[in-house]
Amino acid sequence: MSTTPSLTSFRALSFDCYGTLIDWESGLASDLSPLITLLPASHPWHTNPLLAVQRFNDHSEHLWATQPKLAYDANLVESFRLLAQEQGVELGEDALQKIGDGPGRWPAFADTVDALRRLGRFYKLVILSNVNEMNIARAAAGPLAGARFDAVYTAEAIGSYKPSLENFKYLFDGVKREFGVDKEKGELLHVARSLTADHVPAKEVGLSSVWIARGGDQPEGYGTGGDYGKLKEEGKLGFGWMFQTLGEFADEVERQFAAKGQE
């Protein structure tokens, strides 16, 4: 883990939300249960729902690339419809539509809100999310209540989905305009779990980043964040720090600021 530059040199943190702050995989697995329960008892998704989440995510990412103007709630509904069709299962419209508001109610990780409160003492906090405006607003008022965000930039507002570099350009322009934070001067640090959606493009655009791994450094924990071993071998990753949780990252930030006498 690199400690150069110091974490005290940044003025703002940008966050991926789902998978980093919100337990996206567990929340989605729960919403996929109406499909899973209709599958044969021998189906592997019964014992490992994460496999269903990964396949769902394949459909969702395909829609990100082919229908970038599709709002995320509609993306979720259509991905669920495609997943059910693929498995030969017919779901009612109510079950399909329910998943569309999932991002507004899926739980935050246990460490998230406390860590954000602590990080907010030192930095501007910004969300860069693929989720639509309505769902991110509901998440901020619900599972993320108690945390402060200085700005929220969504795929719906931007018109494309990460890993599109347009989303990161929008971020850079936004934080410079709103807070005077200049990515080119090394003042912005991106904090994310997803390797493919966040850390690969971050390296492409020269954005400093922190990996909140949440088990993703081990093959059994890769989930929807990407194949760490493969991406590392291909030289596509450039994050400067890795922590398992956001809480551990906040601990290190507090330690470094305290060491500089800036508590």
From TrEMBL:
It comes from the Eukaryota. InterPro entries: HAD-like_sf, HAD_sf, S-2-haloacid_dehalogenase. One of its GO terms (molecular function) is hydrolase activity. Signal peptide: none annotated. Keywords: Hydrolase. This is Haloacid dehalogenase. It comes from Staphylotrichum longicolle.
